[in-house]
Write a structure and sequence with these properties.
Strand content: 35-45%
Distance between the termini: 90 Å
Helix content: 10-25%
Structural class: alpha+beta
Number of strands: 13
Shape: elongated
CATH class of the domain at 84-198: Mainly Beta
Length: 245
């Protein structure tokens, strides 16, 4: 009986000890994870500051690392292209997409864009207004063009740009008469959405990995490379009477 009782006590004590040790390890991992998360966030904030305040190039921010005073560190990768752009657009508001390299706005794109394909979801009353502002790599700005697309095209509307490699664009997509949900824009290397799909430039993606002890945390941030113009200035009204909004 004594041996059985002692065996039971030892088994219980061992189980409690294992559970306690695992709980301590788990608590340590949680604490280390918090340090790693904020280290990763520091890498993202550093990239955003360099892009927006110091206007540093994306290439200069890719592959950087940074040690912090609490023995944690961050490392990051930064890219300025994305396969497709997706956004909701409120009625009478617009969405701006830059089809050029924001670090060198007069250089040809590595993969020229000659057409766009639009897909979206709406209630059937919406129309889409697409304004295209072109400029050449010589710095000369061309005449803006506009295209109206009815709601029946929500399954896939094609916007042709110029069949040239030396032209860059700023595209504004405006929602008319109703809200638009999930506007998706894909770019192609030939007119009529032909050729191959190419990446959309002008959109920065930052992946930052924070490390503390043996714990890693990853934070991702995405944004337009350059801040878009405000929708407030989409139209200008001239009137001698009071304007009531």
């Amino acid at each position: 009986m004594s041996i059985l009782i002692l065996s039971g006590i030892m088994t219980t004590a061992s189980s409690v000890g294992i559970i306690t040790i695992q709980s301590i390890k788990q608590s340590s991992l949680i604490d280390n994870g918090i340090h790693a998360f904020y280290a990763a966030e520091s890498g993202v904030e550093d990239a955003l500051y360099e892009i927006r305040k110091n206007e540093s190039t994306v290439l200069s921010l890719d592959g950087n690392t940074g040690p912090l005073s609490n023995s944690s560190r961050w490392s990051r990768t930064v890219s300025s292209t994305i396969e497709e752009r997706i956004s909701d657009i409120a009625e009478d508001d617009f969405w701006q997409i830059d089809l050029y390299n924001a670090d060198s706005s007069k250089s040809e794109l590595t993969s020229p864009i000659k057409s766009l394909k639009l897909n979206w979801t709406g209630d059937g009353a919406e129309w889409v207004e697409v304004q295209i502002i072109p400029w050449g790599t010589d710095g000369n700005i061309g005449n803006p063009t506009e295209q109206l697309i009815s709601s029946v095209s929500s399954g896939g509307a094609i916007v042709n740009l110029q069949n040239l490699t030396s032209i860059l664009y700023r595209v504004r997509i405006k929602a008319l008469y109703s809200d638009i949900t999930g506007m998706t824009v894909k770019a192609y290397s030939a007119v009529d959405a032909g050729g191959s799909q190419v990446d959309v430039p002008g959109y920065v993606t930052v992946y930052s990995t924070g490390t503390f002890s043996r714990v890693n945390q990853v934070v991702r941030a995405q944004m337009s490379h350059r801040a878009p113009l405000s929708g407030t200035f989409g139209y200008v009204l001239f009137s001698e009477e009071d304007m009531i909004k």
